[in-house]
Amino acid sequence: MYLDFFGLREYPFNVTSDPSFLYLSEQHREALAYLQYGIEARKGFLEITGEIGAGKTTVCKALLAKLDGSFRSAFILHSDLSELQLIEAILEDFGLNPPRRSKIAMIRELNRFLLEELKHHTNVVLILDEAQTLKIKTLETIRLLSNLETDKEKLMQIVLVGQPELRKKLASPKLTQLRQRIGVRYHINSLPADEVEKYIHHRLRVAGCRTGIEFGEGCYQRIHHYSGGVPRLINLLCDRALLASFVKGCHTIELDVIERSVNEIEGE
Ligand SMILES: Nc1ncnc2c1ncn2[C@@H]1O[C@H](COP(=O)(O)OP(=O)(O)O)[C@@H](O)[C@H]1O
Ligand SMILES: [Mg+2]
User: Fold this and answer.
1) pLDDT of 192
2) How far is the CA of 55 from the centre of ligand 2 (A)?
3) Is pLDDT larger for residue 147 or for residue 78?
4) What are the structural domains, with CATH classification, of the chain?
5) Which numbered atom of ligand 1 lies nearest the CA of 21?
6) How much is the average pLDDT of 15-26?
7) pTM above the 0.85 mark?
8) Is the pLDDT at 13 greater than 70, yes or no?
9) Which residues contact 122 (CB under 8 A, 6 or more apart)?
10) Among 47, 198, 206, 232, residue to substitute to test ligand 1 (most atoms within 8 Å of Cβ)
């Protein structure tokens, strides 16, 4: 639609979690650093929380891109899996094929794999996204999966990623043992006002915009106010505003266009 008009190669404000668009705000840089540290130092469980659209999945994908050949990883993105489906998904993502689809057979195969990787000093990483949807019982099973600890080393680093409810779920008395094994915790806050403008222009640059797009007075404040600094909401609003400005034939994004875009999104 508006790509040629603004000199863009691709849409800058999609809401998919594409790590090539990663903007390293202080928050996201720290989140990534904590994750990397926790995994390299074999901290066992790691917990990353943040509101919907804060950038959790994007940061995890960026993390995976940074891990080299000495790591094996599985990234489970789906929520709403039963315990058995989850174990099956984990095996599949590690590229494992148990002889039978029974819980015992699958766990045995996973253990075999983990011990084998330990022999080669491979660091095995399991990332569970949307972990706030997992049942307490399933979370406890996950702990048991990782429990084959040798004296010194943990067999697998498990990153639990979720909305703030995850923190509450992990506070359950039934998960005391798991909670005690969380070695790294990080909460991704939304972007502060002064990072909104930088975030927007970073995404425009990645999308191929050479000359930049001008935003009129008050626009960034309004975008920050509407989005609360949540990247996903910034994207939704900016995508609308670029479209509306294109329809008007206007290369500068003005405040009235932002305002109208907010009303449109709110009206839906
Ligand atoms: N640091 C960031 N740099 C670039 N884009 C980001 C960043 N954080 C979030 N986004 C964008 O915001 C949207 C939501 O991010 P996502 O990672 O899916 O959030 P979450 O998993 O926390 O719900 C995606 O389009 C993503 O590309
Ligand atoms: Mg996500």
Assistant:
1) 97
2) 7
3) 78
4) 3-11+191-267 (1.10.8.60), 26-188 (3.40.50.300)
5) 4
6) 95
7) yes
8) yes
9) 70, 71, 72
10) 232
